[in-house]
């Protein structure tokens, strides 16, 4: 049973000390992440599962999981924390199925979904400017805004890979886990370094 | 460990001692800050640019018009008192070899006596001890103050530097100067030709290895000019390169005219060394 969801990006920038001195844009993002996680914890789950994409040979040391756990610690989370690593290239059907299985478990679960949008949003972006990036990210944002997270099931894995989207697989686990409508709050949506960072929290309707 | 004006600095510290001349004839600024108000403006500027220490001097190092102790005191003491009042946190050094001047400026609030002429007046260290001041023990090759090096040779210049500066430092401690308040300075160009100053720079790590904090005074000096065959106004890059080399080898205090540029070089060295994080590292991490 999914009690609440929080979504955060997982740039290395969120690792402690990695920016040298604190960088204002990064600290603003971190604050938004901690707000979203605070709402997740306030919903009263009995455990938190961090969902994140990983490379071919990665496990719980994947950046998504490491940063998710780190943010939970910074947010003062005292609950048991588990993780679900999903291969970044997993087909949508596999991701959806993993999400459905997770939701079927008895525990009252808070999902922390670690996912970034396209890294091709500007000339200075890590993947340079791809004119399709804005549209792809807008589609994700529309799903979040509607509260219908199952809409994320439709994301195109090929296009997502071409746009260096690091969150497609994790979002589709989320789509499988949450089939019902809910209320979504977007705490942050910006691309200060050319990568789209959405931060949100979600609770079921009613 | 170094202690100046009650502040403690570890071996990774990189401090700037900004030169403030109350002289009409110093080689670099040529009297620009001889006037009291101009010198005070200079102090405000160097503090804003990142200097932790000011080194106030009333007598140019080069030979020239006689400046007796009374005149040197006239140029420095009231000024030290004013800087003390206006910049309570600033570490105030005075560049003098005379104990009479040392006493007067310590009474006015100086924290550090920069004895650039190598202990020529042995009573200066006694004054440092009496006032709990810090002391720079410099190698000048045994020459008289305000003389130019003339046909000076060493079997091993660095051996001479080490033995004289460490002896001066130990003597200062015996006289009662706190061990944490003594620095040693190889005295670039003092009693040295360009070959000597370059060798001292190349082997500065041997001075650092003594454990005494090392001060270097490199700024726009003739060894930089001769190394590059450049006139005074074109020595900044050579000075900064030398600054980086000395910082990398472990020097702690850098006596400088060009404070903002020196601060940038020292911050870069600290970042490379890993003793200070980058100010803003985001590239490749988004």
What is the element layout, followed by pairings?
The complex is a heterodimer of chains A (206) and B (286).
Chain A: E1 2-8, H1 24-42, E2 47-54, H2 63-74, E3 81-87, H3 92-104, E4 109-114, H4 133-146, H5 157-162, H6 168-177, E5 182-190, E6 197-204
Parallel strand pairs in A: 1-4, 2-3, 2-4
Antiparallel strand pairs in A: 1-6, 5-6
Chain B: E1 2-4, E2 7-9, E3 15-21, H1 36-48, E4 53-57, H2 69-86, E5 91-95, H3 99-107, E6 112-115, H4 123-130, E7 134-138, H5 157-175, E8 182-185, H6 194-202, H7 204-208, E9 215-217, H8 222-228, H9 236-249, E10 253-256, H10 259-273
Parallel strand pairs in B: 3-4, 3-10, 4-5, 5-6, 6-7, 7-8, 9-10
Antiparallel strand pairs in B: 1-2
Helix pairs in contact in B: 1-2, 2-3, 3-4, 4-5, 6-8, 9-10
List keywords for this structure.
heterodimer; A: 206 residues; alpha/beta; 6-stranded mixed sheet; 6 strands; globular; B: 286 residues; two-stranded antiparallel sheet; 41% helix
Summarize the structure in words.
The complex is a heterodimer of chains A (206) and B (286). Chain A has helices at residues 24-42, 63-74, 92-104, 133-146, 157-162, 168-177; strands at 2-8, 47-54, 81-87, 109-114, 182-190, 197-204. Chain A is an alpha/beta fold and 206 residues long. In chain A, helix 3 (92-104) packs across helix 6 (168-177). Chain A is globular. Chain B has helices at residues 36-48, 69-86, 99-107, 123-130, 157-175, 194-202, 204-208, 222-228, 236-249, 259-273; strands spanning 2-4, 7-9, 15-21, 53-57, 91-95, 112-115, 134-138, 182-185, 215-217, 253-256. In chain B, helix 4 links the parallel strand 6 (112-115) and strand 7. The longest helix of chain B is centred in the middle third of the chain and has 19 residues, at 157-175. The A-B interface holds A 11-13, 17-21, 23, 25-26, 119, 126, 193-195 and B 277-282, 284-286.
